[in-house]
Specification:
This is Pyrroloquinoline-quinone binding quinoprotein. It comes from Pseudonocardia ailaonensis. Keywords: Membrane, Transmembrane, Transmembrane helix. There is one protein chain. The protein is mainly beta and 415 residues long. The chain has a domain of 146 residues: Lipocalin (Beta Barrel). 6% of the residues lie in helices and 45% in strands. It has 1 helix and 32 strands. The strands form 8 sheets. A 4-stranded antiparallel sheet has the order 1-5-4-3, with no helix packed on it. β19 and β20 form a beta hairpin.
Length: 415
């Protein structure tokens, strides 16, 4: 007789009432967490309208034109200098960052949040938008925006107080404030915390406490800060290496030295030099990579222009051979390697910008065309700024010349 094998049926799982209640509570908790994250995350109350196609940069200029005419202008109060990363121009005002066609000024994309912008900078090929915290005391939300399409890239949370600036050179980008600075790599992961760290992983990792930061400068792989610290008889210059080797809250200090006086301004840095401006009478002190003085040169700068500017970041620009520094009334060229002064053009409104093999410098009369090697003004192109007489930060995008005049960006085309 052939038997029939029957599968044994397991008794049904009995769910206790307590299990069902626990499961329901877990679902509610997950929903609440999701809602809270959606409301408070950086993506909340954000409007992002990217460009529909890639932009086109204007053609480079082959020569300096006989004149410039205004092509367009836009509000850009959150950008201290023109931001020309990518094929176009990026402006920032209020809560909105806008990518514009460099030739026409037409909007190609925009990015808006429900809080005001602290500042706009550039780094790693992106536009870097820093937004304020909800209470306005911090510059805490950093977003990287593709300058061509406006799409959002990496984002991070900062612990920088207001007011703040973004500074950068090559692979070194940092956010600065009066008692804290934070450097980051291209994915916006923090590589260096220096100063008043809000929530240190372990106490005692910062070399000094209670210092105020008055002046900053940066070059690839090196970050400099002038500190006013309790117990020091004068200002202190500290040079940091923000390369991300080790813990971010344990800074790598290349050197730190107390200078001769207070009211010092850090002007520029190179691979192995630092140039600081000393008061009374104004002198440019150049130090080596160990903090030792290698040169001390008198400079023709009014005493009133020696102190660090508001925000601690001096007005400088550079090309392959020189750093151009604007003191507040004159443009001074420094050798890019040893930071020795080369020439001075008085009566200027900003450091200037490279254009068709010449260095263009803003003046009250317009644009001075300067031979960058000798500092000789070859001619001046008249520009009517409609009564504006304040500082002018220049930049170029192809043949377009861009002037940051206070809270407004004005684009000039050859004509």
């Amino acid at each position: 007789m052939t038997g029939v094998l029957r599968a044994r049926r397991e008794p049904p799982i009995r769910r206790r009432r307590g299990d069902l209640v626990a499961a329901a509570i877990l679902v509610v908790v997950l929903v609440v967490v999701g809602v809270v994250y959606a409301v408070h995350s950086p993506a909340a109350d954000t409007t992002s309208v990217p460009a529909t196609s890639p932009g086109t940069a204007p053609a480079a200029a082959s020569e300096v034109p006989a004149g410039f005419v205004e092509a367009w202008r836009a509000r850009s109060g959150a950008a201290p200098v023109p931001v020309t990363v990518g094929p176009g121009v990026v402006t920032a005002d209020g809560s909105t960052v806008v990518g514009r066609d460099a030739t026409t000024g037409a909007e190609r994309w925009h990015f808006t949040r429900d809080r005001p912008l602290c500042t706009l900078g550039e780094g790693f090929g992106d536009a870097l938008a820093v937004y304020a915290s909800g209470d306005g005391r911090w510059c805490s939300e950093l977003s990287a925006l593709d300058p061509d399409l406006g799409t959002r890239g990496p984002a991070s949370s900062l612990d920088v107080r207001t007011p703040a600036r973004m500074i950068g050179s090559g692979s070194t980008v940092a956010a600065t404030s009066a008692d804290y600075l934070e450097a980051m790599r291209s994915d916006l992961v923090t590589t260096l915390q220096y100063g008043a760290v809000v929530a240190p992983a372990q106490p005692g990792r910062q070399p000094r406490v209670g210092c105020r930061y008055t002046s900053f400068a940066v070059t690839a792989g090196r970050l400099g800060v002038v500190e006013n610290c309790p117990g020091d008889a004068a200002d202190r210059l500290t040079v940091l290496r923000p390369d991300g080797n080790g813990d971010a809250d344990t800074p790598t200090v290349e050197f730190s030295t107390v200078l001769a006086t207070r009211g010092v301004q850090l002007i520029a840095m190179s691979t192995d030099r630092e140039a600081v401006l000393l008061p009374g009478p104004p002198e440019l002190q150049v130090l080596d990579r160990a903090g030792n003085q290698v040169a001390l040169v008198g400079v023709d700068v009014p005493e009133s222009e020696v102190a660090p500017p508001a925000g601690g970041v001096g007005a400088t620009a550079s090309d392959a051979s020189r750093v151009y520094w604007w003191s507040g009334s004159r443009t001074i060229a420094l050798d890019r390697a040893d930071l020795a002064p080369l020439w001075t053009v008085p009566g200027t409104l900003g450091p200037g910008a490279a254009y068709a093999g010449r260095w263009l410098v803003p003046t009250a009369a317009g644009i001075a065309v300067v031979d960058p090697a000798r500092g000789v003004v070859q001619r001046t192109i008249p520009v009517d700024r409609g009564g504006y007489s304040g500082p002018v930060a220049l930049a170029t995008k192809g043949g377009m010349l861009l002037e940051q005049r206070g809270t407004e960006l004005v684009a000039l085309s050859p004509g």
